[in-house]
Design brief:
By secondary structure, the protein is of the alpha+beta class. The protein contains 27 helices and 7 strands. It has 4 domains: 160 residues, Tetratricopeptide repeat domain (Serine Threonine Protein Phosphatase 5, Tetratricopeptide repeat); 104 residues, Alpha Horseshoe (Serine Threonine Protein Phosphatase 5, Tetratricopeptide repeat); 129 residues; 143 residues, Heat Shock Protein 90 (2-Layer Sandwich), CATH 3.30.565. The strands form 2 sheets. A 5-stranded mixed beta sheet has the order 2-4-5-7-6, covered by helices on one side. Strands 1-3 form a two-stranded antiparallel ribbon. A hairpin with a 2-residue loop joins β4 and β5. The chain is flat, with a radius of gyration of 36 Å.
């Protein structure tokens, strides 16, 4: 992300320049009519800005910018027009920067700044400070960069347009976001947004992108998504914003990954890569490629990840040191996960040499990622001391510009190393930190949702109060009109005859009593309605709290089960007996089948039902990855069935046992084979499940009832929990059949 920050900064500088640059035809027409005065100097400088701001670094554009700047400088010198001279020097700095002659660019930027200070031209001071900021090294002169951006902001505050001030505020916000000063970054970004909105600024892509980036760095993912989607919306309406859109989609993908929305995350990564490829921006291409490869690795799609990385690397060779480190880190991660440690070690050695000799030329977060990949490789190889050595470099900088995701991954690897070395006290402390990162994100989102619900509720209540007041006003108005009509009728009747008056008074009295009675009834009804509404709101609130609590329970159960799996894995490292290791691995798979259910529940809006097609496919995929099953074909046929967790758990455990046994024992000598899993609803609420293979089958004299196999006992016992029937036969392979009915007492809510 930090690498793209430089690209984005260059883009927003060009955007600020393009505000000044008018259409060159209009400027050329103006130039022909003007004499050698300050107005002509301004026009010449605007023409130079126009050619500097054009995309690309073509010689023709640079030559045109140089020509118009020379003309402006000559006229300014002749007229002794200091403002023209100072800004011409700033333009020379921009031109030499485009020519990649940074030393000359720095000289002219400083000269332009000195003239602007002497002449009290604050807006040109701001322009000069921005050039100096851009030309200063991110890694070796960070303090100087901070000083330049602060001085640019101070100068623009003294004299600038609101648009210039908003621009420098958002630029400064991104600078402090890079430094890890998130509160200051958020404050500056919101100041910028406020100014842009006050002037009705139409091009809001950059400010929304920056706000999304800042909120993402702080873990405020809901706000990050809100602003990044706004940036994407406005960016898509414009042309040639590929750089910014690539960054925006990449950042959206990162946010959705942290929110466990992996499909959305990969979709946005694909869109990000599409825009990076459109302009062949190598830095963006490798940044997005790295994220896509890691995403595929997390899904255990290693072959696809390797094909994709090789394809990108063959078409687009790295052009700078950062890209070289990024792609080598990517290959290191890939080969570590494939357990190809010889190839991984080559990339690890290369990265170590590069970082040792070129550390000052590489962004800190790039080095952070490389050290993490090296530590993970040594951890996987069992070289825990070396893994700890590399990880300690990251732990030293864990609180400096490190986001939620990097902190969690660092603590996770630290926990795994200490656990493997038997340092259980330290391992538990790191595991707590991992859970703190998970829970902080969960609670942040939870608190925001509750706040929004509260605001919505208060707004609704205010609307109801206003409506009630309006109704009362109308009711009083009608009452007044009715009273006036009664008085008129009474007076008229009195003038005609006395008896009619008495009769009318009696009638009016009766009507009045009825009316008063009606008012009492209406008041009672309104009071009851208010009470009912309050009770409904209370019940809704309790229901929402119950749903949150249930999600929290499933979330924590899943985490606890994964801790159990991690502890089992740590224990297996120290076991020498193959039978004991196998037993622990079998236990891990059983725990995973239950953990997967709780993960599905806390990620789902339906807290009572498990979608069996998705669950079974993911369970089968996990078991495939747990064994070397390249010679086995899996066929899964599952009806669109929802089952309560009380029945889903036994089914998951039965499938785990049956598939594991088939993988281990059905196919000898690595022969090709097929394992088929079928779950069908034969009749309403009546289900039939088969697990079959075409392997060597069970012995003909095998007696399931009297078998002393733990797996067979588990399957029979779990079938009993389902109140179902269990059978196993030999029919060109092993066939396991289970029939069971839905537990209607716990039928899941659809």
């Amino acid at each position: 992300m930090r690498k793209i920050l430089q690209i984005i900064f260059l883009l927003i500088v060009l955007l600020s320049v393009s505000v000044k640059a008018q259409d060159n035809k209009h400027l050329l027409q103006q130039l022909q009519k003007q004499k050698n005065n300050s107005e002509k100097i301004t026009t010449l400088q605007e023409l130079s800005d126009y050619y500097i701001a054009k995309p690309g670094d073509t010689k023709a554009d640079i030559d045109s910018a140089f020509y118009y700047t020379n003309q402006a400088q000559k006229i300014s010198s002749g007229l002794k027009y200091k403002r023209g001279e100072s800004y011409s020097n700033v333009l020379y700095a921009k031109i030499y920067k485009k020519k990649h002659q940074n030393e000359k660019a720095l000289t002219f930027a400083q000269k332009g700044l000195d003239l602007a200070i002497a002449n009290n031209d604050y807006d040109i001071q701001g322009d000069a400070y921005i050039e100096l900021y851009d030309l200063t090294n991110w890694y070796t002169e960070l303090d100087k960069k901070t000083d330049y951006i602060e001085k640019a902001l101070e100068a623009y505050k003294k004299k600038s347009t609101k648009e210039q001030l908003a621009f420098i505020l958002i630029t400064t916000a991104e600078h402090y976001n890079y430094l890890g000063d998130n509160p200051k970054a958020i404050d500056l970004a919101n100041q910028s947004l406020k100014i842009y909105r006050s002037i009705g600024h139409k091009d809001m892509v950059n400010v929304y992108r920056a706000l999304g980036n800042v909120y993402s760095s702080t873990g405020q993912y809901k706000k990050a998504v809100e602003y990044l989607l706004l940036a994407a919306k406005y960016g898509e309406e414009k042309n040639n914003l590929h750089d910014q859109l690539s960054f925006i989609y990449n950042q959206l993908a990162a946010v959705y990954h942290h929110l466990h929305e992996d499909k959305l995350s990969y979709a946005y990564l694909s869109k990000s890569l599409e825009h990076a490829l459109a302009i062949k921006n190598i830095e963006l291409i490798y940044t997005v490629t790295n994220n896509m490869v890691v995403s595929l690795i997390n899904e255990k799609k290693y072959a696809k990840a390797e094909r994709f990385l090789n394809s990108i690397y063959s078409k687009y060779k790295p052009i700078n040191l950062i890209d070289v480190v990024t792609v080598k880190t990517c290959y290191l991660i890939l080969y570590t996960n494939l357990s190809k440690f010889d190839r991984a070690q080559v990339y690890s050695n290369q990265l170590t040499d590069i970082i040792k000799n070129k550390e000052s030329d590489i962004m800190p977060h790039i080095i952070f990622n490389a050290n993490m990949a090296i530590a993970r490789m040594y951890l996987a190889k069992g070289n825990y001391d070396t893994a700890k050595q590399y990880l300690s470099k990251n732990l030293k900088n864990i609180d400096q510009s490190v986001g939620f995701a990097n902190k969690k991954s660092t603590y996770t690897v630290a926990y795994q190393i200490d656990s493997a070395q038997g340092n259980y006290k330290e391992a538990i402390e790191y595991l707590k930190k991992v859970k703190t990162q998970d829970d902080s994100l969960f609670n942040i989102d939870k608190n925001k949702e509750i706040s929004q619900l509260q605001i919505a509720y208060e707004t609704e209540q205010k609307d109801k109060d206003i409506l009630l007041k309006n109704q009362n006003i109308k009711l009083l108005a009608k009452e007044g009109e009715l009273q006036k009509q009664k008085t008129y009728e009474a007076n008229k009747s009195k003038n005609i005859f006395l008896g009619g008056t008495i009769l009318l008074l009696i009638t009016v009295g009766a009507i009045y009593l009825a009316y008063r009675n009606k008012i009492k009834v209406n008041r009672l009804l309104r009071s009851q309605q208010v009470e009912i509404s309050l009770k409904n709101n209370t019940l809704n609130h309790l229901l929402e709290e119950k749903e949150w609590l249930l999600k929290e329970i499933h979330h924590r159960v899943k985490n606890n089960l994964q801790i159990v799996m991690s502890l089992l894995n740590s224990q297996s490292v120290y076991l020498k007996d193959a039978t004991a290791v196998t037993a622990i691995k079998d236990s891990q798979r059983r725990v995973h089948s239950m953990s997967l259910i709780h993960q599905k529940l806390y990620q789902s809006d339906n807290l009572s039902a498990i979608a069996m097609p998705t669950y079974i496919h993911e369970l089968v995929a996990y078991l495939k990855d747990s064994f070397d099953t390249g010679y086995i074909q899996f066929k899964v046929t599952v009806d669109d069935v929802l089952l309560d967790v009380s029945q889903a758990v036994p089914i998951g455990l039965i499938l785990n046992e049956a598939i594991t046994n088939a993988i281990k024992y059905a196919f000898t000598n690595g022969q090709d084979g097929t394992i088929a899993i079928t779950l069908q609803e034969k009749e309403p609420n009546y289900f039939e499940m088969f697990i079959t293979d075409n392997g060597k089958g069970i012995d003909r004299d095998f007696d399931a009832e009297n078998s002393n196999s733990l797996g067979m006992s588990l399957m029979q016992g779990l079938t009993g929990d389902l109140n179902g029937t269990f059978s196993i036969i030999n029919n060109n392979g092993t066939v396991i059949k289970i029939n069971f009915k839905r537990d209607l007492r716990r039928k899941p809510v659809l």
